[in-house]
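seq:
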Amino acid sequence: MRSDLAALEAFLAVADNRSFRAAGQVLGVTSSAVSQAVHKLEERLGVQLFARTTRSVALTEAGEHLRAGLRPAFAQMRETVDSLGELKGRPAGLLRLNVSSVAEAIFSEGVLAAFLARHPGIRLDVAVDDTGTDIVKEGFDAGIQLGEVIAQDMVAVNVTREERQIVVASPRYLAAHGVPRRPRDLHKHACIGWRVYSRPAPYRWEFTSNGREIEVAIEARVDTNEMAVMVRLALDGVGIAAGLERTWAPHLASGKLVSVLDEYCPPFSGFFLYYPRRTRVPAKLRALIDFLKERRN
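struct:
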């Protein structure tokens, strides 16, 4: 039974990481040991679980079926084992978080270091992901995202102060191309767009005018899924960019960037930690919720 569990754990690690080497690093064993465990499991089950090439590892239909069944079972076992720490009066165990690349900014200023120092029994697995992952199916304890995109059947807890998305450009760009006065003026400008490449369309820029929400589908001069690239291009005067105010704050303070269309960019409620409804919230997750709310206040 123990070897069966180890083989199934190895299978899940490969399925999650799409790599025997990465799975070995997660489990603390060699990639050959993981490969051997998975091979023996396939022999025992009589089905191929992975389609392997020299460059990639992909789940077969049988592998997808096994993963779907095992993920909630292993999550429940992990939660049960972790709950033993609660009997000793402290949160403990592995806390898996799925965080959007935009929301990841809430972990700046030593937030995670402070949380881990307060709760030495907790380990973190933080996946930065913009693909709309099903956190229940993928075995995450919680996610952090904008409230508007969280499914209604989830419990959502506001864990940040108000945020604000603003539009910025370099003084050099504005001197050469003029200052947009209304959101629709952006169609006349070179814009730097952010997009998730697993989705068919780039992100639409959102504004508010007289209490009415406006979306502008810009035709970007450059599209990217990396905020650092957007910042660099805006500083270099390539075009106009949009993003969270905290992202641009150092460059606004230095004068390297200036904000435009401010009257169309009111604050919003910020980011939410969300998790599936359940009868009991694990102590490790409750500890994070309380910590982030304390930081917010």
